[in-house]
Specification:
mainly alpha, 2 domains, 3-stranded antiparallel beta sheet
Length: 350
């Protein structure tokens, strides 16, 4: 059950491939959103200049809300967002099968890296999951993507509408008023992009994890479980750091980190002795210990990860390492571990 340097290299390569997949999706989605806003900008500019021309110092909400050109621009924005959502779903779904298949091949490579080499007179034939099981993952993930993205257009347009129909103080420079409103409205429009990219990243990663889980179920006779692996750098969050290295049953899905999380599942084989191989020296386990890694950081790096209060509470021994993560229940998405709020940690410490 020793995680070797080769295991960690395979896991790192897998993470890089997944990062490339999701980065490509984000680039494609961003281009679509930028082009879409460029096409909508003239409509909103014309509507706002028409509305503000000769206006009094302050326009009531009702006057803004009834403006025909503005309402027409918002209807066009909704239609554009519906089209963007359909396109976003296609971009994400086109890579799902690749992600699932990558998970299966990565799982097998991870297992091989922990088992005795062929040179020791031992060889293993790893079982692959049934194709229909992998197809089911793609189908399920596709349904989840559609459910998550369905309300996107309505949510974004409502936010844009609220921004535009607030009482507008016109003053002496209607063009400056229009510019500020356009900037704020574009921010709400791009809130849809942020949501779409979050769906892309999280659903792609979860599909990969379900592929790993399904592949592991086909090789339960070799496995003792899987470990939670977070990315050990200054960008990791306290929750993921505290979960790093924890062991879970083979058939349990995970890691259930937060949205946009970067954590990975590392399947762990049984010891060579448990697998019936004696007289072969098993290598030492090289899976890094999160607390040892954290303790070796500079104070600046610790502060970047924990923030001042968490850092001090942990240093004082007022909270435990495990207190940094809290399980959040969600009907809209899935349960996930997130960083425990500072106020809750302070309550634990008191």
């Amino acid at each position: 059950m020793a995680v070797t340097d080769e295991t960690l290299l395979i896991a790192a390569d897998t993470r890089r491939r997944l990062q490339r997949m999701t980065d490509e999706q984000v680039i494609a989605l961003t281009r679509s959103w930028v082009d879409a806003w460029d096409s909508l900008t003239p409509l909103f500019n014309e509507a706002l200049m028409d509305l503000l021309h000769g206006a009094p110092d302050r326009l009531p909400r009702a006057v803004v809300a009834r403006n025909r050109r503005l309402q027409s621009a918002l209807r066009q924005a909704r239609a554009t967002l519906n089209e963007l959502t359909r396109g976003a779903n296609e971009v994400i779904e086109n890579s799902l099968a690749d992600a699932v298949l990558d998970a299966v091949s990565s799982h097998q490579a991870v297992l091989q890296s922990q088992l005795p080499a062929d040179q020791a007179g031992v060889s293993f034939n790893l079982d692959a999951p049934a194709p229909e099981a992998l197809d089911a993952i793609v189908t399920r993930t596709t349904q989840q993507i559609h459910a998550a993205s369905k309300p996107l257009a309505g949510w974004v347009v409502q936010a844009m509408r609220q921004e535009l129909v607030r009482g507008i103080a016109v003053g002496d420079n209607p063009r400056e008023v229009a510019r500020k409103l356009m900037k704020a409205t574009e921010g709400h429009f791009n809130g849809g992009l942020a949501r779409a990219t979050r769906i892309a990243r999280t659903e792609m990663l979860d599909a990969h994890r379900r592929g790993s889980q399904t592949a592991a179920k086909a090789n339960t006779d070799l496995l003792t479980g899987w470990k939670w692996q977070c990315t050990l750098d200054r960008r990791t969050c306290p929750s993921c750091l505290s979960k790093h290295g924890t062991l879970y049953p083979v058939d349990e899905f995970g890691p259930i980190d937060h949205q946009n999380g970067r954590c990975a599942r590392i399947d762990i084989t049984k010891s060579w002795a448990e697998l019936g191989f004696t007289g072969i020296d098993e290598p030492a386990d090289t899976f890094p210990d999160a607390r040892t890694w954290y303790d070796g950081l500079t104070d600046d790096s610790k502060l970047a990860i924990m923030g001042p209060t968490r850092m001090q509470l942990l240093a004082d021994g007022a909270i435990n390492w495990e207190d940094l993560a809290t399980l959040r229940k969600s009907d809209a998405w899935r349960d996930s571990y997130t960083q425990t709020p500072v106020r809750d940690l302070q309550a634990i410490a008191s």
